[in-house]
Amino acid sequence: MAMELVQPGMRFVQYALLLGLFGGFGFHAMTAHAFARTNGRCGWVIFIAIAAPVVVALSLATDIAAMMGQSPFDLDAAAVASLVGATDFGRAGVLRVVMVVLAGVSVLLFRPSRLGAGIVASLYGAALASLAWSGHAAAGEGFAGWLHRLNDAAHLLAAGFWLGAIGWFAVLVLRAHAMPDPGRNRALAAALKGFAPIGATLVLLVVVTGVANGQMIFGLGQALPVLSTGYGQLLVLKLGLVALMLLCARSNRSTAHSIPGAAGAGSVPDHQALQTMRRTLFIELLLAVAVIAAVACLGLASPMPGDS
User: Fold this and answer.
1) Which of 113, 180, 197, 222 has the most beta carbons within 10 angstroms of its beta carbon?
2) Predicted TM-score of the model (pTM)
3) pLDDT score of 70 more than 60
4) Could you give the C-alpha distances from 291 to 128, 212, 285, in angstroms and in order?
């Protein structure tokens, strides 16, 4: 029973790391607000960047072991090398490991800057996109298969940037709460408002690519039969969690408008608004973790009624 939990557990950790690292560095690189960028390297970011290649390699090993019907501890090197060299899944896995290694080295070498963050985000983005070759999209063949994988990659990248923004705003709200400064609070409110169009675009992209994924995996016309499966129930859970995340995002945007100095601001004191945003962002992050867990399990479940 314990070994049955290893593969989804490793997939969850891998997805969480790659989504967070890509989104965090991507938001860092693209934000126009200087206060949203750090002046030095964070020790915990370096630790995660160093740990990521180990996690990705272990996750690849557990996936290969599951495909071969073996324990990860019983893998034969020659058989693994053969599978890696002969399948798109294996080649994508090797690419993923290489990308996270290069990204980790870049984190250690580059000075904190928008350019450096952009390079690191690109490497993590490539690693994240390669996960499209390890789920249901990997089963497709020909042009339809490539279209499915590209759509899945776009879905992951949009979701990653959205989650990265949530994480950054959570850090910024904590900073603003710990070091009260009306000017910083107004800048934070402006950043939240300025991100709204980008956030809406990302959510739209996530929805469109998600619907397309559903059509390509099981066909939207078969949605009702799919709901009777574990896959369908997990999918409904995931959609419900995402809907709650959107409600949190809407709440944060409304709260940002209440900070004095923001356009259309009301009379809510800075500290009260920051406490509200801190609480809502924390809930949103917890919901995101639950969504990632659902995604990790969805990739291993069959949408076909009657399949185990």
Assistant:
1) 222
2) 0.89
3) yes
4) 16, 18, 10
